[in-house]
């Protein structure tokens, strides 16, 4: 089946900056660029955002209206927008999903087991999602072996098989979306100084090194484990197509320091590509008209450039 080159955008949490950055980003595109974009949002929320920004949503954008809510701050809007976008993805009406940020805690008031977009999408698609962060038009890509896990529980969520699976999925997706047939991969250690030969922790020897050996049997070659601080301090990341971090902040801190507004959250391993800005709902500046749309604009352009 030939899937149309369509992009769907879910509106995110209406209590945050999602609607504002989406509207500003769409208005920054050319009329040709906004063709074949579906926006899943209540029309009264769009109207409220147009009033705030003094911008008009391009008529070429196809609005798929989420049931209008009297309470425009309701987290139900974010969830219903996402569900509708997924319905379109399931029906092959879109091939790439761009998600505006949502507030996980607010979503749990109506869906208690919600942990984030990545986990929700993986469960819906019965897939093995891999979270990767990348900067458009840059070599830099970093994936996470654990996602939204408290630091004290990270090692409980790391094992040889899951790491092999994560990296294997990433390699397939890098070939599909980035034309990287044999990506050069670096794996970061878990402990300080990558365990210092077991003196500061043995997870490098008991988990990471066996995982790298299993990957080699699959003809997937990765260097490491590297001491994370030296790896970035010595700019070794410039030599690799994919960096594998053990946990959330190990990957996100250098990504955001290096690429700031350009960094994007990309979910691999789904039947479609999912992209989002790497920032959150920024509720402290929401509905003040000052939100910066650069990251959302990068996400939409990335989605347009990487449809396969």
Descriptive report:
The chain is α/β, with parallel strands linked by helices and 308 residues long. The chain folds into 2 domains: 1-127 and 271-308, Isopropylmalate Dehydrogenase (3-Layer(aba) Sandwich), CATH 3.40.718; 128-269, Isopropylmalate Dehydrogenase (3-Layer(aba) Sandwich). It is 37% helix and 16% strand. Strands 3-2-1-4-11-10-5-6-9-7-8 form an 11-stranded mixed beta sheet, with helices on both faces. Strand 1, helix 1 (18-28) and strand 2 (37-40) form a beta-alpha-beta unit. The mean pLDDT is 93.
Topology:
Blueprint: E1 7-10, H1 18-28, E2 37-40, H2 43-53, E3 62-64, H3 75-90, E4 96-99, H4 104-107, H5 117-125, E5 130-135, E6 141-144, H6 160-178, E7 185-188, H7 203-217, E8 222-226, H8 228-233, E9 242-245, H9 248-259, E10 263-268, E11 273-277, H10 294-305
Helix pairs in contact: 1-2, 1-10, 6-7
CATH class descriptor name of the largest domain: Alpha Beta
Number of helices: 10
The succession of helices and strands, N to C, reads: EHEHEHEHHEEHEHEHEHEEH
Strand order of the largest sheet: 3-2-1-4-11-10-5-6-9-7-8
Structural class: alpha/beta
Q: What do we call the CATH homologous superfamily of the largest domain?
A: Isopropylmalate Dehydrogenase
Spatial gap, N to C terminus: 13 Å
Largest sheet: 11 strands, mixed
Q: Please tell me how large the radius of gyration is.
A: 20 Å
CATH topology of the largest domain: Isopropylmalate Dehydrogenase
Query: What is the number of strand segments?
Result: 11
In helices, the fraction of residues equals 25-40%
Beta percentage is: 15-25%
């Amino acid at each position: 089946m030939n899937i149309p080159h369509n992009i769907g955008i879910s509106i995110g949490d209406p209590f945050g900056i999602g609607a504002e950055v989406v509207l500003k980003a769409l208005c920054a595109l050319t009329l040709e660029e906004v063709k074949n974009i579906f926006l899943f949002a209540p029309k009264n929320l769009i109207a409220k955002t147009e009033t705030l920004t003094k911008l008009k949503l391009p008529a070429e954008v196809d609005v798929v209206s989420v049931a209008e809510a009297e309470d425009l701050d309701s987290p139900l809007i974010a969830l219903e927008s996402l569900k509708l976008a997924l319905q379109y993805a399931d029906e092959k009406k879109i091939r790439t999903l761009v998600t505006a940020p949502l507030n996980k805690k607010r979503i749990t008031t109506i869906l208690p087991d919600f942990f984030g977009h990545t986990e929700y999408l993986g469960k819906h698609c019965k897939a093995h999602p891999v979270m990767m962060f990348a900067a458009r038009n840059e070599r830099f890509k970093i994936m996470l072996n654990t996602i939204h896990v408290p630091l004290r529980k990270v090692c409980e969520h790391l094992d040889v098989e899951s790491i092999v699976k994560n990296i294997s999925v990433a390699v397939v997706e890098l070939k599909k979306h980035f034309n990287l047939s044999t990506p050069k991969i670096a794996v970061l250690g878990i402990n300080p100084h990558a365990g210092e030969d077991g003196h500061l922790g043995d997870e490098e020897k008991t988990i990471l090194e066996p995982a790298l050996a299993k990957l080699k049997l699959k003809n997937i070659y990765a260097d490491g484990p590297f001491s994370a601080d030296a790896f970035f301090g010595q700019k070794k990341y410039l030599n690799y197509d994919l960096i594998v971090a053990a946990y959330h902040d190990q990957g996100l801190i250098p990504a955001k320091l290096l690429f700031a507004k350009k960094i994007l959250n990309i979910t691999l391993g789904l039947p479609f590509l999912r992209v989002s800005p790497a920032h959150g709902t920024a509720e402290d500046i929401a509905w003040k008209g000052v939100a910066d749309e650069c990251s959302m604009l990068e996400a939409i352009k990335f989605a347009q450039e990487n449809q396969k």
